[in-house]
Amino acid sequence: MEIRQIRYFLAVQETGSFTGAAEKLFVTQPALSAAIKSLEEELGAQLLRRGHKKVTLTPEGLRFRDRAFAIIAECNAAKSELSSEPAQRMLRMGVLNTLNTKPINQLIYHFTTTYPDIELHLETGTKDILAHKLGQGKVDVLLTSLSGEEASETIMPIYQERFQLLLSRQHPLANRSSVRLADLHKLPFVLRKNCEVLNEGKRVFLAEQAQPHITCRTDDDAWTLMMVRNNLAAAIMAETVLQDGLVSIPIIDFGLVRNVGCLWRMHSDQETVRCFTQFAAQSLAQLDLQAS
């Protein structure tokens, strides 16, 4: 029994004639008739009742028709399965919008080049928005700042970094090896509303009786960097944030740090999440945590 014989049989029962089936399949009528005759002989049953005006199915033909449809369907499914490319793995990653830094960029780049078969979908946002999306299952893993209050089995710290004073190279303090908060008193300053340690930082400034002159309030670090680059104000940012024309200087009495890590859902067994977290853990030594 051959697949073409089954296709010929189904075409005849659909069109009701050998001529119509031959035209539909682009074969000659004698070839089609011979193939179906051979099929009937192999099955030991007459499948078609050949009338003067129309070809109809015999009771045996009716029973065989259902099996014929199933055989063709299985053949088509097998062909489609074997000819199609394997489904690509995907990882939906949420990245804190303040983490556009060299080590995070390196980590993402090296992961995608090491695992080209995993399609990475990135979404940036605030810490609260990303946490909400993780809870809803809209992202699989987060690269974010860790507060220490997360469940220990669903986090993996990657690195810790200090907050430093970011200045233009033309700023009067740019040549200092370090500064104190008192040096920032009445200094034109950007208040970063998206800073991970905003509230703690305000308390530190108050304790040191330092009050910078706020000339810009923003939750967009692009505006922060523009203000600093144009020497319009200074800002406090993580030490890995640096661009050409800017300098990052330690603040002796600030003392706050940012803990960066991965966060995922409880009981997540997604293979791509495990793959990324294992890669991140193995890549710690290779990450460039220097600002320059």
Overall description:
With 292 residues, the protein is of the alpha/beta class. Helix content is 39%, strand content 24%. The chain has nine helices and eleven strands. It has helices spanning 3-15, 18-25, 29-43, 59-83, 102-114, 127-136, 198-207, 221-229, 271-282; strands at 48-50, 55-57, 89-96, 118-125, 141-145, 155-168, 188-192, 213-218, 235-238, 246-250, 257-264. The strands form three sheets. Strands 3, 4, 5, 6, 9, 10 and 11 form a seven-stranded mixed sheet that branches. Strands 1-2 form a two-stranded antiparallel sheet. α7 (198-207) links the parallel β7 (188-192) and β8 (213-218). α1 (3-15) packs across α4 (59-83). The model has no long low-confidence stretch (mean pLDDT 89).
Q: Span between N and C termini?
A: 73 Å
Strand content: 15-25%
How many strands, what sense, and barrel or not for the largest sheet?
7 strands, mixed
Overall residue-averaged pLDDT value: 89
Strand count = 11
Q: What is the alpha-carbon Rg in Å? A: 35 Å
Which series of helices and strands comes N to C? HHHEEHEHEHEEEHEHEEEH
**Unreliable stretches covering 5 or more consecutive residues:** none
Structural class: alpha/beta
Number of helices: 9
In short:
By secondary structure, the protein is α/β, with parallel strands linked by helices. It has helices at residues 3-15, 18-25, 29-43, 59-83, 102-114, 127-136, 198-207, 221-229, 271-282; strands at 48-50, 55-57, 89-96, 118-125, 141-145, 155-168, 188-192, 213-218, 235-238, 246-250, 257-264.
